[in-house]
Amino acid sequence: MNFEVIGTGHYAPENVVTNDDLAKFLDTSDEWISTRVGVKERRICTTETTADLAYQAAMNAITMADISPQELDLILCATISADDVSPSLACTLQKRIGADCPAMDINAACSGFIYMLETAAGFFERGTVKKALVIGAERMSRLLNWNDRSTCVIFGDGAGAMVLSTGNSYLSSKVFAKGNTDVIRIPQMHGMSPFYKNEAEEPYLLMNGQETFKFAVNAMTKDVQEVVEKAGLQEEDIAFVVPHQANLRIIDSAKRKLSIAPERFCSNIERYGNTSAASIPILVDELNRDGKLKDKDKVVLCSFGGGLSSAACVLEWKVR
Ligand code: ACO
User: Fold this and answer.
1) How far, in whole angstroms, is CA 216 from its chain's centroid?
2) Do residues 287 and 158 both lie within one domain?
């Protein structure tokens, strides 16, 4: 026994930033960003905190699930951009929604949401949890060097959430990490210890785009094949693939390597950019609210990112 999804929700800040808006202060163009990354616009926080985004996404999922926050037994947040080092985003959210249950964050960068589903599955299998809220929420805009055109054009802010209840939807999974500090790194704040002698680094995202690209395509292809096989399925049984929205060309390359029909790969990167751990639950919520997910559909979620990390799973969708 693991879980089924009984509610989904998402939220993104109102401020829309187009590629043309970026071209006003960066040496870039709509043409470059659209063709190399696949992003046309992204939402960027002006006054909203990560907790604000998480709160709205959570309440949308809780409303769809038709439960009260007091019924939750667990809150898990996947994030690399929590407002505070402590309390965790999950604890801040627990207070705001009025829940009374354990709450914690996990950092597995863009793979965080699936790592969280895997963590939740363990709680459900041990029978210690009957309802859980799992959230991916990111204010990536605060981790970016806005003078670095090779990174800041890719990302956006947003949050997505799922309410899980006891069930059998989590058919198979894989979580993977290959520790590496050269490909993607976001240094922490240096601190002010008078005793620490290392040089301060700027606390903004550093990325070797091409190495990330190669890792992403390989991980996505391998992970999807493995979870489909582990679930006892064939690639043609898959109704939808919901990949992490990092770059449209990564998704297109993986499509060519897999024998799943290309139209089954979903995408909304054009409107949100890469929202890290939030990208998968935002896209699942859009598919769910559009009525695209049918009962018993086999849905593959797959992600990759900083760590380096990757993760994938197969869900059997349940329409309530
Ligand atoms: N506008 C215009 N030109 C640009 C821009 C820009 N925004 N950014 C880079 N360029 C230029 C470069 O300077 C370079 O110019 P040069 O040839 O004169 O040196 C040229 O474009 C090509 O640059 P590349 O880095 O080779 O471009 P590439 O096609 O590899 O695209 C990109 C770069 C978009 C970063 C791509 O490699 C990519 O998407 N990688 C994966 C990123 C990713 O998946 N990140 C997610 C993980 S992040 C996380 O987990 C937190």
Assistant:
1) 14
2) no
Question: What is the percent of the chain with per-residue pLDDT over 70, rounded to a whole number?
Answer: 100
Q: Is the peptide bond before 308 cis (omega within 30 degrees of 0)?
A: yes
- Indicate if 77 and 212 belong to the same structural domain: no
Give yes or no: residues 30 and 115 share one domain.
yes
Whole-number Å distance between alpha carbons of 111 and 215? 13
Ligand 1, atom 33, residue with closest C-alpha: 209
Q: How many domains does the chain have?
A: 2
Ligand 1: lining residues by beta carbon, under 6 Å: 28, 32-33, 36-37, 109-110, 149-150, 153, 184, 207, 209-210, 212-213, 216, 246-247, 250, 274, 276, 305-306
Among protein residues, the one with the nearest Cα to ligand 1's atom 23 is 150
Kindly tell me if the per-residue pLDDT of 320 is higher than 90: no
Q: Is 244 a catalytic residue?
A: yes
In the DSSP assignment, the letter for residue 186 is -
Q: Give this prediction's pTM.
A: 0.96
* Distance of CA 247 from the midpoint of ligand 1 (Å): 10
Q: What is the pLDDT of residue 1?
A: 87
95 or 1, which is more confident: 95
Do 125 and 270 fall into the same domain?
no
35 token code pair:
């063709």
CA pair distance 134, 101, nearest whole angstrom = 13
